Amino acid sequence: MGQLKLDRADPNFRKQLANQPGGEKISACFMCRTCTASCPITAVNDKFNPLRIIRMALFGLKAEVLSGDFIWLCSSCYACQERCPQGVSITEFMTVLKNLAVKEGNIPTGIRAQRDIIKGEGRIYPLDDFDNKKRVKTGLPPIPTSCSAVKKLFPDE
Amino acid sequence: MKYAFFLGCTIPARSRNYELSARKVAERVGIELVDADEFMCCGFPMKASDYKAAEVMGAYNLALAQEKKLNLCVLCSSCASQLTEVAHHLSHDGPERAQVNGELSRAGLKYDGGVQVIHFARVLLEAVGIETIREQFVRDLNDLKIAVHYGCHYLKPSEIYHGFDAVEDPKSIETLVALTGAKVIDYTGKKMCCGGPVLPVDENVALLVAKEKLEAVSDSGADAMCLVCPFCAVMYDGNQKSIESEFGVTYDLPVLYLTQVLGLAMGFDRKELGLNLNVVKTKKLGF
Question: Do A149 and B202 touch (CB under 8 A)?
């Protein structure tokens, strides 16, 4: 990424984040790197680094954070959040960033597919009659193959 | 001990071995599980893209349990975490609950708080109790060396679980496994994530995370891995062959659900526990 281009930074980004559930305490970060040291994703791919993302957000680098693919690598394992000595809800904060990124049009294909199938079918793996045959054969009760309630809850999807 | 049984999406479609073995164990120790056709996805996979919709889905399921006047017993750790979190958020009568109830009214439901969400393993430990479980055992598993994988959402975030087990030094599942006589094996990185939630984003990263643990468990000399979440099983059992071919390694490590381990000690046979449905062959374990 090189030098920080702070003239393109958005000073309101920090405030915007502080108003979201999970973003309230990020300013308390004192850069100890416990989050990064605990992260199972950073351990295999340093493209994802929770401390770096928190610092970028605090610097107001809104566009870089919300358009990047790296935020999507968070596995929501809570290892960082459980260990943060400053009580920053880091995992919830990553969820806030992902939600904001979606509003900016940044959503990985796989996550979009999951969202669309759940809002459409009520389940991530909809079952058909064939699945139910297999279930009944192994002694399990059949499961409904459609979900009408999800269409009532999300009528615009 | 009567609970509404929340299966979620992955278990009825892809982890029938977990469901079969859990139903068998539940029946044996006296847990009554009430099935409900109306349940939908817990909302967990929606959280990253639409936090509010995920909360509405979670609340919908809680409201259904409330109608039945039952607490929820959950097999999947991600469902447990999501539903517990929503129950935690909506435990107080405030603007958040009012807003969610506004959405739920379209489906003719309202959530008033108070439904408890409890993972099956926790029901075994806290409601059934160690003595009752031990009384059902007819087979000693002392020839088996088992490495336990806790996964993340079974225990975390700890603030919503009221410290039911220690996040940094968990014991609950190992306690249950040790009851069977099996030797519990410790290994490096026991608390590490399976990588599952990253699978729809970057398959290579997800498989690399899972590989770390498969390697550590293999090196520990364990005969099998034991877990309590179908997402973790997708990574370690379902994707073990992909990991082996992608990275040129061999593990051939059976991955059992806790309910399969307990079911074996209770004397159930392979088919009753769905061991024939595990992806990595389990026959070498001698059952």
Answer: no
Q: Where in chain B is the domain with CATH 1.20.1050.140?
A: 2-120
**ipTM of this predicted structure:** 0.95
Hey, what CATH topology would domain A7-103 get? Fumarate Reductase Iron-sulfur Protein; Chain B, domain 2 (1.10.1060)
Measured in angstroms, the CA of B104 and the nearest CA of chain A are apart by 7
CB contact under 8 A, B195 and A40: yes
Question: Which region among A1-10, B93-102, B197-206 has the lowest average model confidence (pLDDT)?
Answer: A1-10
B16·A91 Cβ contact <8 A: no
The answer to whether residue A157 scores a pLDDT higher than 80 is no
Q: Is the pTM of this model over 0.95?
A: yes
Q: How many contacts, defined by CB atoms under 8 Å, are there between A and B? A: 154
DSSP chain B: -EEEEE-TTHHHHH-HHHHHHHHHHHHHHT-EEEE-TT----SGGGTTT-HHHHHHHHHHHHHHHHHTT-EEEES-HHHHHHHHHHHHHTSS-SHHHHHHHHHHGGGT----S---EEEHHHIIIIII-HHHHHHT--S--TT-EEEE---STTT-SHHHHTTSS-TTS--HHHHHHHHTTPEEPP-TTTT----GGGTTT-HHHHHHHHHHHHHHHHHTT-SEEEES-HHHHIIIIITHHHHHHHHT------EEEHHHHHHHHTT--TTTTTGGG-SS--GGG--
CB-CB neighbors (< 8 A) of B45 in chain A? 114-115, 118, 124
| CATH 2.60.40.10 matches B2-120 | no
Smallest Cβ–Cβ distance between B107 and the set A111, A141, A149 belongs to A149
